[in-house]
Design goal:
The chain is α/β, with parallel strands linked by helices. It has helices spanning about 5-15, 20-25, 30-45, 60-85, 100, 105-115, 130-140, 200-210, 225-230, 240-245, 280-295; strands at about 50, 55, 90-95, 120-125, 145, 155-170, 180, 190-195, 215-220, 240, 255-260, 265-270. It contains eleven helices and twelve strands. Strands 3, 4, 5, 6, 7, 10, 11 and 12 form an eight-stranded mixed sheet that branches. The two termini are about 55 Å apart. InterPro entries: HTH-type_LysR_regulators, LysR_HTH_N, LysR_subst-bd, WH-like_DNA-bd_sf, WH_DNA-bd_sf. One of its GO terms (cellular component) is cytosol. This is LysR family transcriptional regulator. Keywords: DNA-binding, Transcription, Transcription regulation.
């Protein structure tokens, strides 16, 4: 038995005639008669009996009539819901972002996506890149924005932004007027860091150790604006991604390039290779990838396209 058996049965019950039902369904009368006969054999009951020229439902037919209406209605709803999903009229996406990303350029990305797909809802979860990567791995999140490199055996990914870290110092700092600073020159400085659950915490520490010193961390935070304000208050120095530095008040904070080494800040979008991804999530990945390629082609930062 398939859904067509029930649909044909309901049409015969509505018209009380195989001929009229066949005409309404644009099929032959023998076809619909055979369908109903197969249904009766599958169920082991008689569904119709004849009263003169009309068909009437048996007691078994009455029971099936009530249930079949619900089944066919549910199937139609299911088809419509799946159609909406495949046509991207609805859906829900869970995306993990490091806090500094959300305030930098993602509002512009999300705004453009919503213009095209207003019925798709997006849940944003702000966490450090390490936590975001772990949540994509376990399935808590569909998609995440993390620092490269990432686990290529576990995740699909594409490049989002390639920038570098910049040095933030107070205007009165001894290095404030320099055009560039080597990392080794910061060995005696007080650092304001991201918390340990942020990938940048490990990245900066590793670079400092490579340069010959262990950074002296006096404050840790999950918020880039708090970190920059600590620098503005002359409590220490910090290393922040270049896009964030474009937002800062140059009269209160000096932003200087780092050299020897330049520390890259390469963001990628990741999703699991071995897990089902919804139509909406797949479209968000495609849309975002095309958007960033378009922006890169114009040699502009995403925030400039508001």
């Amino acid at each position: 038995m398939d859904i067509r058996h029930l649909q044909y049965f309901l049409k015969v019950a509505q018209y009380k005639s195989f001929t009229k039902a066949a005409r309404a369904l644009y099929i032959t009368q023998p076809t619909i008669s055979k369908m109903v006969k197969n249904l009766e054999e599958d169920l082991g009951v008689v569904l119709f009996h004849r009263l003169g020229k009309q068909l009437e439902l048996t007691d078994a037919g009455e029971i099936l009539f009530v249930q079949a209406q619900d089944i066919v209605h549910s199937f139609q709803n299911l088809s419509a819901e799946l159609g909406d999903l495949m046509n991207l009229k609805k859906g829900h996406i869970r995306i993990g972002l490091p806090p500094m990303i959300g305030s930098s350029f993602f509002p512009n990305v999300l705004g453009k996506f919503r213009e095209h797909y207003p019925a798709i809802t997006i849940q944003l979860v702000e966490d450090g890149a390490k936590k975001v990567e772990a949540d994509v791995e376990t399935g808590v999140l569909d998609i995440g924005v993390v620092l490269s490199p990432t686990n290529e055996e576990l995740f699909h990914s594409f490049s989002l932004v390639k920038e570098k870290l910049m040095l933030l110092v107070h205007p009165s700092h001894r290095l404030a007027d320099r055009k560039a600073v080597s990392l080794s020159e910061l060995a005696e400085e007080d650092f304001v860091f991201f918390r340990e659950d942020f990938a940048l915490h490990d990245r900066i520490t590793a670079e400092c150790v490579q340069a010959g010193f262990q950074p002296k961390v006096i404050y840790e935070s999950s918020q880039w604006d708090f970190i920059s304000e600590m620098v503005a208050a002359n409590f220490g120095i910090a290393l922040l991604p270049e896009p964030i530095c474009r937002e800062l008040d140059e009269e209160r904070i000096r932003v200087l390039p780092l050299d020897q080494p330049v520390i890259p800040w390469h963001l990628v979008i990741i999703w699991r290779k071995d897990r089902y991804l919804s139509f909406a999530a797949r479209e968000w990945i495609r849309f975002t990838q095309n958007l960033f390629e378009e922006w890169r082609g114009k040699n502009k930062h995403p925030r400039e396209h508001g």
